[in-house]
Structure formats: structure tokens, C-alpha cells
Fold this sequence. Notes:
By secondary structure, the protein is of the alpha+beta class. Helices cover 31% and strands 17% of the residues.
Amino acid sequence: MAPPKRISRTALTAQLAGRKLVTRYAPSPTGYLHLGHLLNAIYVWGVARAMDGEVILRLEDHDRNRCRPEYETAILEDLERLGLVPDRGSFSEFRAGSTTYRQSSVPEVYAREWAKLKENGLGYVCACSRKQIKARTGQPDGEEIRYDGFCRKRGLEDGPDRALRIRLEDMEFVFDDLLVGRQVHHPQRQSGDVVLRDRKQNWSYQFCGATTGGRGSIR
């Protein structure tokens, strides 16, 4: 077995360019933590502590049909028991109730940012199901479905069983991944216009809510 790849401290320092490292751990409370989650947490906290950085704890409970309060409680207890204490999004804050670090607690943030996207012509309403998209495009099972833009110009009104999508132009994104090197992505060619709120009215992780200084914002 090949040894795991490591992030070069020198490369990370150079990429930060004098800025403080801020990373996040964002489990979804759709089940209990398993060893994969734990490995990820150790990695996140390890890198942050090695670089004198900060860890944000967020709960991405966007799948409201599968998330359970008991899973959230167990996640917080496990992290606390293991000494993986966040710098922002404290355990006590989550246990107290509403917090800007839990996705479902700040629906107004998503609604506000969605309104901006729509006003700027970047957001639109979609009535297509995955089955309909596959039937139109003939895409095979087992692969990521690329949306064909069917509803882009239909001017649909929002309502039950309708999703919200963001209009993506065919742009190229290039970045250096410190583990695997240079990466080139074309989101429009890979997935098409992505869903920001699904047909069950759940905001998606692509439209993740971040918090800066305790204020809700989208990043």
C-alpha cells in the first residue's frame, strides 16, 4: 500500500500568502459519525493546528428528510469526547438552539442571496425531474446527470415541486490542489446549471451558507 500523500507545509504557507488559515468541518446529521468522518476530522484539525489556524464547525443539514436531532446530538458528543473542539460554532451554541453555523437555522440568508442571483439574471426556476432529464438526454445510469438547460428560458414561477438553479456559463476554473496538483474544471460541461434548492424545498450544499464574524453570508 502506498503511503498517504501529505500536504507540504511550505506550499501551504506560500498559498496562504500571509493570511490566516481558516478551514471547516461540516458533517451532515443524517447518521452517526463513522471512521471515515473521524479520519476527515483528524485531518482538518491537524492541519489547522499545525498552521495556527481555525476550524469552523458547521452542520450541513440540507437533507431535511434524513436529518435527525439525535444524530446531531451524537455528532457533537463524539467530537467533544475526542477533544476536537472548533474555534467557531461551539458545542454550546448548537445545543442552545438556533445558530448561524447550522444550515437550517438561517433560511433567510439563502432566500436573500437567491433573490440577488435572480435579480441579476443568474437564477431561474426549474420543473424538471431527474427522470425527465435522463429521458430527454439519454444519459446512462450510474453517471452524474448533466442538466440540459431545458427551463432556462421558460420563465417559470416558483412553487411546490420546483427547483431553483443557477445559470452557469462555460468557464474554466484552474487551481492547484496541494495533494494532487493542478486541476482544471468546466462545471457547465460536467453538471450544467446546478440546483441551489431542490424540488423538496431543501437548499443544497452547492449553495452553502458560511458565517463571517457571526453574520450569515454565502460563499
